[in-house]
Amino acid sequence: METLKYKKVLVLGATGGIGAHLVQLLNSSGAIVWVAGRSAAKLAELATKFQIPSEQVLQVDLADQVSVKQFASSLSTVSGPFDIFINAAGIGLIKPFDQLASTDMLNSFQVNVMSTFDVLKAILPKMVEVKKGLIINIPGILGKIPMSGAAAYCASKYALVGMMQSIREELKRTEIRITQVYLGGVDSPFWDTINLRVQREKMIQAEEAAKSIWFLCQQPVSGVVSEMVIQPFNHQAI
After folding, report:
1. Does position 129 have pLDDT exceeding 60, yes or no?
2. Which of 11, 48, 119, 232 has its CA 20 to 30 A from that of 69?
3. d(CA 100, CA 136)
């Protein structure tokens, strides 16, 4: 297992259910953590709890193109490359196709695809310079298996996966590793705004999902976990 001590790690979506647990695990492992999220109050709480310097705390609204561009610009000024980038952010829209508006689709792509594109444009060149790094995205199980009522969500997550697979082909001459994590049914605040009957008590706990990503961060550099699928025991789609 690789040590995380002194590794520079960027967590996008650090204020979410999985992200907050992940920050705690990374911090306790000695990593130097940059946290990014939408809620200024939650970011401040994380920074205080884990003594994260203010310059490593970045607020961004992924639905706002201007905010994302500013965020990406600030990342490009960070000295040296990040060792690990974890994309734990995203938006989930569950709505029948006949009720979807074009704005729903555009917003899904902005948050789930374009924001990742802009962040990678800012941080990937420095990884390429040293020819190493680890990028972990969490497209979720709907980035692999479609579900009724999730056309916008699935489309954006499939696009994210396709983009990352293409980038992986371009990075074959480097040791930059890319991992996709397909989580299914995590009990997190994600479900607070989803109008769908679900059994949250049977879902994967956010803390356990975070542990799986923390585990991936410590994999030996001689290999790569291209993808990991974790689903609730009672609801295996694949």
Report:
1. yes
2. 48
3. 29
Evaluate if residue 5 carries a pLDDT over 90.
yes
Q: Tell me whether residue 238 is in a domain.
A: no
Range of the domain at 104: 8-230
**Is residue 236 a part of any domain in this protein?**
no
Percent of the chain clearing pLDDT 70 (strictly above): 90
pLDDT at 192: 59
181: left (phi over 0), alpha (psi -120 to 50) or beta: beta
Q: How many angstroms separate the CA atoms of 87 and 99, rounded?
A: 29
The per-residue pLDDT for range 178-203, each reduced to its tens digit, is 999 998 776 566 655 656 666 666 67
Length of the chain: 238
Domain count within the chain:
1
Supply the CATH number for residue 21's domain: 3.40.50.720
In this prediction, residues 212-226 reach a mean pLDDT of 92
* 93, two tokens: 């829209």
Handedness of CA 115, 194, 138, 46 (dihedral sign): positive
Cα torsion through 106, 107, 112, 118, rounded to 10: 80
Q: Which two tokens mark 89? A: 């952010």
Tell me whether residue 48 is exposed, middle or buried, using C-beta atoms within 10 angstroms of its C-beta: 0 to 12, 13 to 18, 19 or more.
exposed
> 114-117: long-range contacts at Cβ-Cβ below 8 A with a sequence spacing of 24 or more?
114/65, 114/68, 115/12, 115/60, 115/62, 115/68, 115/89, 116/87, 116/160, 116/163, 117/163
pLDDT tens-digit map of 44-64? 999 999 999 999 999 999 999
